[in-house]
Amino acid sequence: MEKGNQYESVLIVEEKHTAKAFGSGDLYVFSTPMMVALMENAAMKSAELGGYATVGTSLNVKHIAATPMGHKVRAIAELIEIEGKKLVFRVTAFDEKEKIGEGVHERFIIDVEKFMKKVGMKTRTL
Asked: 13, 49, 64, 80: most buried by Cβ count inside 10 Å?
């Protein structure tokens, strides 16, 4: 893994991806929560590591243009910084006509077994 690595996630906007379906708006246009998920997916895929995983910890994005149902959307994550276990990505999203979103996303590299053990401790303390 090195700076400059990129990954692209793509989908065709269906009703289930719309703001109306997500409850984040009243319109049948590509939702901000789905754009964020697509951006995170691209970053996660860009940082796949054997035996380890990454978790999202910070996301600062702008959703700058609407996309109608039936259009293709792609999110691109580019690794721009590595600081120990912290990975920083520039994320952008485009539909067939224009850029629809942009921002910065941080992920941390985790040991899956240790992470899940810690999560499991929460259920035992309730």
From this structure: 13
